Amino acid sequence: EEAAPSTTARQFPEDFVWGSATAAYQIEGAAGEGGRGVSIWDTFSRTPGKTLNGDTGDVADDHYHRWAEDVAHIKDLGLDAYRFSISWPRVQPGGSGEFNAEGIAFYSTLVDALIAEGIKPVVTLYHWDLPQELEDEGGWTNRATAYAFAEYARRMAVDLGDRIDVWTTLNEPWCAAYLGYANGEHAPGRTDPVAALTAAHHLNLAHGLAGRAIREVLGEDANISITLNLHVNRPADPTSELDLEAVRRADAVGNRIFLGPLLEGAYPADLLADLAHLTDWSFIQPGDAELCRVPMEILGINYYSTGKVRYAEGAGRVPEGEIATSVLVGVLDVEGVPVPGPYTAMGWNIDPSGMTELLVSLHATYPGQALMVTENGAAFADEVSADGHVHDADRVSYLHDHIDAVGAAIEAGADVRGYFAWSLLDNFEWSFGYDRRFGIIRVDYDTQVRTWKDSAYWYRTLAATSVLPAASDIRY
Ligand code: GBH
């Protein structure tokens, strides 16, 4: 499926949801305030050498104190929905036991303020900030963490109740498991492939248990969701059987390890076989895979770029005594190959056709499943011009072309309900700290002043009209 650049304008459905997204640790700051506990990202970012320039989320966008102004920006942008995450340690400092009324009140007030402005709250319960006390007990490698997560989710369903439009359990379990436990780039910074696979399973289980808990509290009215960063893996040589086999293996460990249990109630047999040299999978207990699946109203998709793999005899065989840090966790004879540009400031390639391909293929595999693009966006080397504006034409065209690709997927039959630009604000970009800016609104980290970039003005027009202009007709 090729998403050719549109030559005509594209009208999106009447009820299509236009939103923007953030995450708690990336924007809130106030790390030591309001009774918040310590998360693995506090620990990780405060450890020398883990983040660019030693940046931490201690202050971030100071959203904890400036939430009212931020809600006003969302309102002025005319967005239908706002996707944010709840910091688990802010509402339950130790990850189990006592809840923190002050933390819950913060989110309750935020939700009321959004609703008062007609903005739908789309909540993510876990965007990577695990309470440190749970990590001390093994984190996501510990099965008990999945059960603790379900109790936290249950409490949020009780306290925030029917005010929440979409309940997203987890953001990108791939990142939480593989970047956190296999390659060490994210908190908690572990490098152990079996730990990463164990974490992946416990995250799947956590979704299933939490989804059931929310359903028990709120009944059929609750919209349950999870957000996945699925990988569009292209073969280095599309005519090579071996490269296609490499794609199958990468797809199993990157995508189907989540899609299988979450949507089909079973782990793919080929995945279990591929990695049998590494693990006996005994952390998956009988009945678990079915437990991971709960009926989902929405499947959230975060899409940024595409990848390429090839068959490479010997790849993935790590010599005794060396540490395996590949995110192709345990996969043998497969290696990633460089993808042609253009690239964003993250070094990720810009390829809108992957968006269409992913949404259309999900629709083909899971025909009844409603989809939502819960993140898409780009970091570029933004600068403030002499006129005080940020003329981020590169971001406008990135957003335009990817939204166009979403439109192409809808045209091809995919049931895509909405699109959320990542991100509302420049923010703490994980191990890249404040060096990479994804916002449609610029944040001056000295003054905390928010300035709309051209992309924000452009996105406001789109949200107001639901008409995506032709590429040749972009104005702002
Ligand atoms: C999301 O992660 C996060 O949900 C969000 O918090 C974050 O700020 C945002 O994206 C921007 O990073 O390494 O060249 O193979 C996205 C994570 C991005 C990880 C694409 C895998 C593949 C590019 N993914 N990446 S490459």
From TrEMBL:
The Swiss-Prot or TrEMBL record annotates one GO molecular function as: beta-glucosidase activity
Q: Check the record and name the Pfam families matching this protein.
A: Glyco_hydro_1
- Which keywords appear in this protein's UniProt record, sorted alphabetically? Carbohydrate metabolism, Cellulose degradation, Glycosidase, Hydrolase, Polysaccharide degradation
The record's Gene Ontology biological-process terms are:
cellulose catabolic process
**PROSITE patterns the record matches:** GLYCOSYL_HYDROL_F1_2
Reactions the enzyme catalyzes:
Hydrolysis of terminal, non-reducing beta-D-glucosyl residues with release of beta-D-glucose
A GO cellular component annotation here is: cytosol
Q: Which residues form the signal peptide?
A: none
Give the enzyme's EC designation. 3.2.1.21
> Where in the sequence is the active site?
172, 375
UniProt-annotated binding residues for substrate: 26, 127, 171, 304, 422, 429-430
| Top-level taxon of origin | Bacteria
NCBIfam families associated with the record? BGL
The entry sums up its family as follows: Belongs to the glycosyl hydrolase 1 family.
What's this protein's name?
Beta-glucosidase
